[in-house]
Amino acid sequence: MTLREDFREILRLVRPGARVLDVGCGEGELLELLTREKRVDGQGLEISQAGVAACLAKGLAVVQGDGDRDLDYFPTQSFDYAVLSKTLQQMREPAHVLAELLRIADQAVVSLPNFGHWRMRWALVTTGRMPETRALPDPWWSTPNIHLCTLRDFTELCRELDLRIDACSALSNGKPARPIDPEHPLENWRSETALFLLSRRNAAPRAPAPVDLFGEAAPGPAEAPKRRRTSKA
């Protein structure tokens, strides 16, 4: 099975032995990978009974629950990382979910499709219909996605929630991750899928690791860029 590109980046990011909560873990592919490769102390939260059963069959610690409601019951700072991979846009209350991720974990890893990508814009202009692309392949009437957003939308939400963007990469069709500034107007056109590493702005910056999320020399955590008066993409 081909490893999902965001899973590959999450695997590179997570520290060995870390406490990890995978929200919306499905059948446990990522959680199993992290457990095997990084020996994490992992736990999953999955709404589907079939997904929970598949995880339990693999020996994974997974409970059935709804990320929109049940994150509230996890103790504060009980994990090092909370992971939400291509699931935020399916939540009924994405702002609440994002805030809860960074209440219960020191850092959150969130990947999401970018509805501002040029393929999306082109499909809307040329067909007048909701786009179907590699990142969002389902027709509008059967998609689980109910809160699609662009990179600009997501960075604005992070600012409103007082979250710090420690790193961000663009992912596209199996290509290597490309570090980006998610506030740059051009990236709102270029990035098909984005992966964010987030922390609370009032939390102490973490010490630099030997390599960063994208396998390069790690600078200190970057502040989410301040609001700028620029032309909007």
Low-confidence stretches: 207-233
Over the alpha carbons, how many angstroms does the gyration radius reach? 17 Å
Report the structural category: alpha/beta
Q: SSE string, helix = H, strand = E?
A: HEHEHEHEHEHHEEHE
Strand line-up of the largest beta sheet: 3-2-1-4-5-8-6-7
Residue-averaged pLDDT: 84
Please outline the major beta sheet. Answer: 8 strands, mixed
Shape: globular
Total DSSP E strands:
8
Number of helices: 8
How much helicity do the residues have? Answer: 25-40%
Termini, distance in Å? 37 Å
How much of the sequence lies in strands comes to 15-25%
Tags for this model:
single chain; about 230 residues; alpha/beta; 8 strands; globular
Give a written overview of the molecule:
The model is unreliable at about 205-233 (pLDDT under 50). This protein has helices spanning about 5-15, 30-40, 50-55, 65-70, 95-105, 120-125, 150-160, 185-190, and strands at about 20-25, 40-45, 60-65, 80-85, 105-115, 165-170, 180, 195-200. It starts with a helix and ends in a 33-residue tail after the last strand. The protein has an 8-stranded mixed sheet with strand order 3-2-1-4-5-8-6-7, with helices on both faces. It is about 30% helix and about 20% strand. The chain is α/β, with parallel strands linked by helices and about 230 residues long. The protein is globular.
